[in-house]
Design brief:
By secondary structure, this protein is α/β, with parallel strands linked by helices. The chain is about 30% helix and about 30% strand.
């Protein structure tokens, strides 16, 4: 019996046999898919079937005799596998549908606020407008690099169609969950009221606060891999933003914001600067600075994947 594995960031390994290790050790890399086949006389008399349990997908269909089984193209990992050997030509152990899924990495961008909810507002500039402008630029940059990108909104609307803030925030997370997005990035701009001297960029990831229980994400909100990857994503984007803009580094930290708590994938919320600072607002509303922010966000996301 021979087999090989597809390792995230490495690709397909060479074929190995009879108990030898396939994959990597000590590198912290995920196996995405496997292939198994029989050789010699055994292959003349038997078929080998196998299926995998893939993160976020569950059990996939049965593959056979060297066919790939798993999920290619996004950040899901294999969590279990099952192998059966049957006499040549006998029926498969179960369904053979969807044994191998070629999925693109789906990045979900969330331009904060929209419609009735303007977010922060200073000198006739609305946060909802800045959020959407930057998000559209990030989307274009990532798509140019081959990433699959979706957004919770593409115009000045509320996502849920209601004026209930809790419903609005849950709707954004639900969209990303239903699409099985790989990561979720919520784009915002900050305000310190009338404390006009406060400036800088900060990035937030999820932290559990007692009393703020998930409503639609009970299973994944404290998943250790999701939490660890959220911190990594936050760090990569924050580092890229500070390097590109020279803005004050307000760091990364955890909060229990609804869009971070209720999303089932790694998720971060960006605060790209303080609209309450006349100096920072003057930059934030320019197309040139928005381009810098968008390029830095896209670079941080790409760095996360690399």
């Amino acid at each position: 019996i021979t087999y090989r594995s597809d390792v995230y960031g490495v690709g397909w390994s060479g074929w190995t046999t009879n108990g030898s290790i396939s994959g990597t050790t000590g590198a912290g890399k995920k196996i995405k898919a496997i292939e198994i086949k029989l050789t010699g006389t055994f292959a003349d008399y038997y078929d080998v079937y196998y299926r995998v349990l893939a993160q976020n997908y569950g059990w996939l269909g049965w593959a056979k005799n060297g066919e790939p089984a798993g999920v290619e193209g996004n950040n899901s990992r294999l969590e279990a596998y099952e192998i059966r050997v049957v006499k040549k030509g006998e029926a498969a152990p179960g369904s053979t549908a969807n044994s191998y899924i070629e999925a693109k990495q789906l990045i979900y961008l969330d331009p904060g606020h929209g419609g009735w909810d303007s977010g922060a507002s200073f000198n006739g500039v609305y946060e909802k407008t800045l959020n959407l402008k930057v998000a559209n630029k990030v989307k274009a940059l990532l798509e140019a690099q081959g990433y699959n990108v979706a957004m919770t909104r593409t115009s000045d609307v509320s996502v849920s169609g209601t004026t209930n803030l809790s419903t609005e925030l849950l709707a954004r997370a639900a969209m990303a969950n239903a699409a099985q997005a790989d990561i979720f990035v919520s784009i915002h701009h900050n305000s310190a009221g009338y404390a006009s001297t406060v400036t800088g960029i900060e990035t937030i990831y999820y932290g559990y606060y007692a009393g703020y229980e998930p409503q639609i994400n009970q299973v994944m909100h404290l998943d250790p891999t999701r939490l660890a990857n959220s911190v990594t994503l936050a760090d990569e984007i924050q580092s890229s933003l500070i390097s590109a803009t020279g803005a004050k580094d307000r760091g990364i930290y955890d909060e229990t914001f609804a869009v971070l708590r209720e999303t089932a994938m790694p998720a971060v919320l960006l605060e790209l600067g303080f609209m309450s600072s006349s100096t920072e607002l003057a930059k934030l509303k320019t197309d040139s600075y928005q381009n810098i922010l968008a390029q830095a966000i896209a670079k941080g996301i790409i760095n996360y994947y690399q």
